[in-house]
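As promised in the previous annual report, we have extended the structural survey to additional targets. Below is the entry for TIGR03013 family PEP-CTERM/XrtA system glycosyltransferase.
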Amino acid sequence: MNKGTGYGKNSLADHLFVVGELALLIVSSFIASYLFSHFITPIPFDVRVLNAVIFAAAVMLSALSVGLYDQQLRETRKGIVKRVVITLLFSAFLLEVIVFNIFASISIGAWYMLWSCAISAALITSFRAFFHYHDITRISRRRVLILGSGERASIIEKRMRRTVDRRNFEILGFVRIDGDKEDALDNDKIIDLNVQEDLFQYVMEHAVDQLVIACDERRNMLPVEHLFKCKTRGIDVVEILDFIEQETGQIAVNLIYPSWVIYSDGFEAKKWFKSSLDYRLNVVLAIFVMALAWPIMLVTALLIYLEDGRKTGASIFYKQVRVGIDGKPFHIIKFRSMGPNAEANGAQWATKDDMRVTRVGRIIRKYRIDELPQLLNVLRGEMGFVGPRPERPEFVCELEKDIPYYSQRHNVKPGLTGWAQLKYPYGATTEDSMEKLKFDLYYIKHRSLLLDLVILIRTVEIVLFGKGR
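The corresponding structure token record, generated without further manual editing, is:
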């Protein structure tokens, strides 16, 4: 499993996809620099090569930030084109405004950038359309057999029904094991197989790549000898928990048992490379973001004051008690996005179309501008840039009663953004909290400096496309 930057096993198709796009970006750059040399002024070959490398790196970084390399991205063709255009605009800004201003000697010119972006836009959109139309992922799709047809096995069918969920594997079927709950799956999905006698032969005959243990009752029910023979022949044998984690980037909280948490890899809190960004890096990043965002923060404060602050005397900021690391409470600071008496009737879940939100509040909540004052919480060491979003004590007490392992999300510092915000849409119910906890636990288990950086880069996608808060 790729434990550093995401989830799932990087297949041959994934590698071909990335290499293909990299090659097309380099080709686009060379064509643009050739046109520039032919029609405007000659460019040395070494400058062309350097620009090709820098251009490709900038575009791929921008593509990552808007979710174009999300393995389970659900978008229409129009949506993909939109993201490609945004990617190229970002990369052009990054290069022209920052990189080529600092290193002016390697800049070819504005016409080069325009041609590079236009050519790469055409090539990348065509390449992606061809890649998905012909479903290139089939060349490396794993053949998976599920041992189990009961309640636990049905979770796989419910969780991974869509084509995009199964881009890396195909399920041959579900094998009934004694002790499985009846009628959990449709009969047409169940393979009639005597696992105690014929499992190994079936696996060999059908070229199975992976066996998933998903039976409801394991004690004395599994064909251990057959599983051992499969293992020695190179067949991957995994638990349902590990399979779901591997393919969805979340941990199935309702399937967790204590020994799995204790013996599984991950969850270490004290190793530096497996912890979230340390305090010094958070402080440096917070100061850098504040230096860039202070004009936006100033305008936001003024708009809040003009809308209702001068009439009511209410503060432009909103302080609220949240639960931090080790369950310790702290005051989170945000721009006020609701009316002064929004919680006159006590603590309430915020909803998607909350009537308590002001006109200015709707805008700053949509683009997460209301979160910017939390940079002060980062400077105080109460929060990091990346981590589970902190929740209110009133709700934490309820959620800990209803959701198993909910308190484990307090083993790390809360963050401004997180894995759950990337992977789950906006929601404010107990069910939504359960779903987000699955992603939070995945982050806690796999947290690393590299994963934090990927989440930070992809937070751009949250802001632009209004994903989870």
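Strands lie at 142-147, 169-175, 190-191, 210-213, 236-239, 317-323, 329-335, 384-386, 415-417. The chain is about 50% helix and 10% strand. These points will be discussed at the next consortium meeting with the crystallography subgroup.
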